Amino acid sequence: MDHEGALHLDDVLTRRTRLSIESPDRGVSAARVVAAIMADALGWDEATVAREIDSYDKRVEAERESQQAVDDRTADARRLGAEDVRGTLG
Predict the structure, then answer these.
(1) What is the mean pLDDT of residues 56-74?
(2) Which of the pair, 36 or 68, is modelled with greater confidence?
(3) Which of 10, 40, 57, 75 could lock onto 66 through a cystine, CB 3.0 to 4.6 A?
C-alpha cells in the first residue's frame, strides 16, 4: 500500500492482487483480513473498515448480477449500481 498508493480495499483486491478475478469467491473471504492489514497501514478506524468491506461486497454482488443480464446495457446498469467507494471516502 505504501509503495503502490492503494487507498481502498477494492483497489487492492481488484487491481493490485487481482483476487477479484482470479479467486472463485472474488476475494470476499480475504476482504476482512486485507482490510485489517490496510487499517493498520493507513490508520483506518472501525467505521472505515466496515465501509470498505461493505463497499467491496456490494461491488462483487453487482458484478455477479451483471453477469446474469440478457444484454450489455442491462449488465452495465447492474454493474454500475454499486456505489464507488472512491466517491464516498478520501
Answers:
(1) 84
(2) 36
(3) 75
